[in-house]
């Protein structure tokens, strides 16, 4: 088992290193995007799949991480020139740290602190009520970003953010996130998280501090979502409230359900299929030549076909592609001669 983990780790590192040489700029941007969404998917899967808490909060933490990173990397002069609705607050002008790695760490810490504060009211409820509470939190973050222009430049967002995110940063953090999440899952905390998922009352009766375990999963998930938000804004070069609607959370939910709730491997596979597949099918939106006849452009056909593929996959794989298993836990039956 450990040898397989080492092999997969080595292959991932080799792929990240070679990507700069084997992909052109367009395909490299797709790989960068996939790597960032792997970070977000595996961290979201920790709270939603492994711990079994139906949370709909990722867009809020990703938005916070994106704004913290952008505000830290933009110089005071750049902020003054961009803030058109209202002059930037003094604390925003002083909020300047041009080191990219430190900015990412600060983004993760900011999201973690917010998650820790939210855990007290959020985990007073369960099930559908938990989903509603966390969904409301995502909307609140978006509304704050729009209605406090002295801190976020409102609906105009922030532009000209330094594009520091390359494949070494995005791929490296993705590998770190997967390794960290897997280590948590295989630890005593991971076993406690699975116990909470399977039967929270039974876990509580067995002496597990369920609030502590859920908070740990929530804060760990928030940290990587904040870092992922920072990488995303430094890949795109801009950030605005429109990027972090509920659709963003819904997209991550599709990924982890398709891959298999509770499986980190499934979250990685689901990300590659959803993010890579949607780009691969982009040709369906453009004019096509079929049997000598040129069809007109059909914007949106790509998503129709992609949605049908998702429906078919879920019909034949009810628990997702991997279920709750990891790749190293698969057992293949040997054929025996009769």
TrEMBL record:
List all membrane-crossing ranges: 28-47, 95-117, 129-147, 167-186, 252-277, 297-317
Q: How does it sit in the membrane?
A: Multi-pass membrane protein
Note the Pfam families from the entry: BPD_transp_2
Please tell me whether the keyword Transmembrane is annotated for this protein.
Answer: yes
| Name of the molecule in the record | Branched-chain amino acid ABC transporter permease
Listed A to Z, the keywords are:
Cell membrane, Membrane, Transmembrane, Transmembrane helix
Q: Where in the cell is it found?
A: Cell membrane
Coiled-coil positions are none
InterPro entries, A to Z: ABC_transp_permease, LivM-like
């Amino acid at each position: 088992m450990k040898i397989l983990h080492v092999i997969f780790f080595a292959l991932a590192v080799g792929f990240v290193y070679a990507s700069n040489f084997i992909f052109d700029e367009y395909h490299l941007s797709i790989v960068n995007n996939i790597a960032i969404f792997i970070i977000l998917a595996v961290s979201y899967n920790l709270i939603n799949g492994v711990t079994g808490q139906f949370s709909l909060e990722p867009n809020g933490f990703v938005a916070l991480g994106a704004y913290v990173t952008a505000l830290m990397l933009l110089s005071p002069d750049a902020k003054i020139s961009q803030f058109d609705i209202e002059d930037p607050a003094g604390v925003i002008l002083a909020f300047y740290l041009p080191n990219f790695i430190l900015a990412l760490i600060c983004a993760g810490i900011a999201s973690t602190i917010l998650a820790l504060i939210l855990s007290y009211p959020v985990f007073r409820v369960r099930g559908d009520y938990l989903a509603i509470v966390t969904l409301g939190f995502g909307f609140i973050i978006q509304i704050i970003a729009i209605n406090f222009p002295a801190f976020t430049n409102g609906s105009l967002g922030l532009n000209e953010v330094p594009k520091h995110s390359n494949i070494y940063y995005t791929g490296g953090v993705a590998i770190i996130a997967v390794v960290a999440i897997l280590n948590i899952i295989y630890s005593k905390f991971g076993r406690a998280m699975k116990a909470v998922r399977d039967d929270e009352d039974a876990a509580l009766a067995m002496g597990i501090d369920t609030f502590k375990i859920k908070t740990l999963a929530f804060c760990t998930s928030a940290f990587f979502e904040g870092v992922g938000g920072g990488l995303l804004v430094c890949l795109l070069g801009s950030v605005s409230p429109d990027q972090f609607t509920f659709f963003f959370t819904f997209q991550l939910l599709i990924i982890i359900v398709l891959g298999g709730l509770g499986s980190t491997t499934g979250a990685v596979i689901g990300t590659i299929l959803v993010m890579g597949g949607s780009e691969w099918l982009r040709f369906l939106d453009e004019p096509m030549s079929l049997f000598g006849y040129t069809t007109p452009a059909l914007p949106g056909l790509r998503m129709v076909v992609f949605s049908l593929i998702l429906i078919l996959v879920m019909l034949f794989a009810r628990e997702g592609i991997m279920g709750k298993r990891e790749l190293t836990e698969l057992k293949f039956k040997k054929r025996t001669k009769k």
